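Pilot study result, target chain (406 residues):
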Amino acid sequence: MIQKTLLSFSLILASLTIPKSIALGFPLNRVEINTQNNVAIDEQLWGDLNKKGDLSDSSWVENPSKPIFQGDRAALVTAINNSLSYLTTPKATKAYRRYAGTNFNLIDVRRSLIRFRELLLTTSSATELQEKVISEFAFYQSPGQDNQGAVHFTGYFEPTYVASRVRTEEFPYPLYRKPEGFDHWKKPHPTRFELEGKDGLSGNPQLLAGNEIVWLSDRLEAFLVQVQGSARLQLTDGTTMSITYGGSTNYRYTSIGKELVKDGVFTKEELTLPKLMAYFEANPQALDQYIPRNNRFIFFYETNGNPPNGSLGVPVTGDRSIATDKSIMPPGALAFIEAPIPQVLPNGEIQNLTVSRYVLDQDTGSAIKGAGRVDIFLGSGKVAGERAGLINGMGKLYYLLLKEKK
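Predicted structure:
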């Protein structure tokens, strides 16, 4: 989730639903797809397009990162290229050993991405792409949490906050890099309360002093950076900084949203990230009660402005990267989702719409378990955060592989 606390923890909402997922063995089942059932059509690839490149220029074959298109196709090509980079690594070779005996071997997953990228760059409409994909690719559907394909979707993002390189009265809440001797800490590790105190200001001097990277003005913001696992920071000296997941203590993630539901502050159905933030803004003293319940503590490192990485070690792409349970789902593979994802309308309003979209499976998360859970990365900044905080619904998930040649 980016090692995913962006990565691995999804949003505050991610742990609210604990599905009885189908997670025994390899879960994907091949299904028959045709153009009539509207699967595999992604209008957004063309809907936001302002300019189309010259399709007669085939130089993208030698230089696939060349920006042939503007708009969403460029983002999808970037995500595909990132997956292809991962699939050349020893990490990928090791990961795909667990898929022995399935159709999802490393060679065919890579071959499928290359062919899909070619179709993406040489078709002229969503309908044409759909027809070619259905003709050439086999679809494998996740059984979901009910064995009928129902998948619970949530969203995550890379937040942007104002921060200071030095501690001041206005910026007292620190984020830390992993201490030099962390790998030798005695287990179980110290709890969050033992590391930062009840109020988040009493950092353990023996374990944390000197490892501060940056300070934030708001305790909930500092906590949300840990939940998300990365952030872009606008610093008070006029510079910017980007940080991402650098390690964590050995505790399971505890959702403060789930804790609020357990205590009767909200029902599961009414809780959203904006409502959670509004509650703590009105009741700041409650942070001392709820934040320490999450014993897991996150460390960071600076990324020098690079995009946040997913658990595969490659950058995640807004609206085109998903996080799934990597103990069962094929890493880096091409997927297709039908899910409720908030869209920004021309008037600036955000409306939750059911969309169909090609994505790459490039992340994971501790709250993302089983065949019935997907977390989609929505990018960086305020709007991405508003959209991510509103995703909490059911959809479908398919993976694509090139059909065997006859």
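One observation from the pilot: Residues 157-302 form a domain with the Ribosomal Protein L25; Chain P fold (CATH 2.40.240.50). A full batch analysis is planned for the follow-on phase.
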